[in-house]
Design goal:
The chain has 233 residues and is of the alpha/beta class. It has a single domain, classed as 3-Layer(aba) Sandwich (Rossmann fold). Helices cover 32% and strands 24% of the residues. It has 6 helices and 7 strands. The protein has helices spanning 33-46, 78-81, 108-120, 143-151, 162-170, 197-221, and strands spanning 7-13, 16-22, 50-59, 69-77, 127-134, 156-158, 174-184. The protein has a 5-stranded mixed barrel with strand order 3-6-5-4-7, surrounded by 4 helices. β5, α4 and β6 form a beta-alpha-beta unit. α1 packs across α5 (162-170) and α3 packs across α6. The mean pLDDT is 94. It binds the ligand O=P(O)(O)O[C@@H]1C[C@H](O)[C@@H](CO)O1 and guanine. Residues 56-58, 135, 137, 140-141, 157-159, 182-183, 185, 195, 200 line the site of guanine. Pathway: Purine metabolism; purine nucleoside salvage.
């Protein structure tokens, strides 16, 4: 999609071997859901243990400001309610079980680690924790939809990530999710604000340096055996 480079980059980040997707596939681009999540299984086969998934999202929580970084503690998979789940079809036993648990989708130790690193970097003022809701896109939400999603418990809304999380958890990868609140979801009929992709890209650029620092510092502290340095046990 415009704004995503569409490259896969291999290298080391703070001494840790990493592979980085510079962009992703989205359902709204017309890709089948298995293709949207295909890179995650490639990562598993490459030996990846931990994935850090990032996205741009609209803020539904009234306490959120544009530029906030929300650590994802849970998700609402609305396409999943209608049967649009990446694990639909014959189960690939070599990756995982037929009915994977999702109540532990977002790794609590990694989330804690992200909070600690964020505080150390002085980012606490713009770091939040909340529930991410995925929709199919590409149209942004109506006012009624935003109000409904907020009442359902969503703090942020976007068009990605959740499908990747489901496939990652299915094959046993540990997941940290970060949403950059790039715009405030319009919840008020009097509002003159309009969601638009340019604002999404602009907010992304404004926070890029801090997000890079957050992720690279975190990566440096995650041990390859999935233990963490400096976060208690
Ligand atoms: O790939 P993400 O979820 O970060 O991208 C979001 C959703 C749409 O692709 C785009 C909307 O502006 O940003
Ligand atoms: N669905 C959705 N995706 C987004 N990505 C960035 N902002 C938004 C938004 O407001 N809604």
């Amino acid at each position: 999609v415009h704004g995503h480079a569409g490259r896969l980059i291999f290298g080391t980040l703070n001494g840790k071997p990493c592979v980085c997707m510079q962009g992703r596939f989205h359902l709204y681009e017309g890709y089948p859901i298995w293709k949207v999540t295909f890179p995650i299984r490639i990562f598993k086969l490459l030996g990846v243990q931990t994935v850090i998934l990032t996205n741009a999202a609209g803020g539904l929580n009234q306490d959120y400001k544009v530029g906030d970084v929300m650590l994802i503690k849970d998700h609402l998979n609305l396409p999943g309610f209608a049967g649009n789940n990446p694990l639909v079809g014959p189960n690939e036993e070599r990756f995982g079980v037929r009915f994977p648990c999702m109540s532990d989708a977002y790794d609590r130790d990694l989330l804690k680690a992200a909070q600690v690193v964020g505080a150390e970097l002085g980012y606490s003022d713009f770091m939040k924790e909340g529930v991410y809701c995925v929709l199919g896109g590409p149209s942004f939400e109506t006012i009624a939809e935003c109000r409904m999603l907020n009442r359902l418990g969503a703090d942020a809304v976007g068009m990605s990530t959740v499908h990747e999380v489901i496939v990652a958890r299915h094959c046993g990868l540990r997941v940290l999710g970060l949403s950059l609140i790039t715009n405030k979801a319009v919840m008020d009929y009097e509002s003159e604000e309009r969601a638009n992709h340019e604002e999404v890209l602009q907010t992304g650029k404004q926070r890029a340096e801090q997000l890079e620092k957050l992720v690279s510092t975190l990566v440096a502290r995650v041990e390859l055996n999935n233990n963490y340095c400096g976060f208690g046990d």
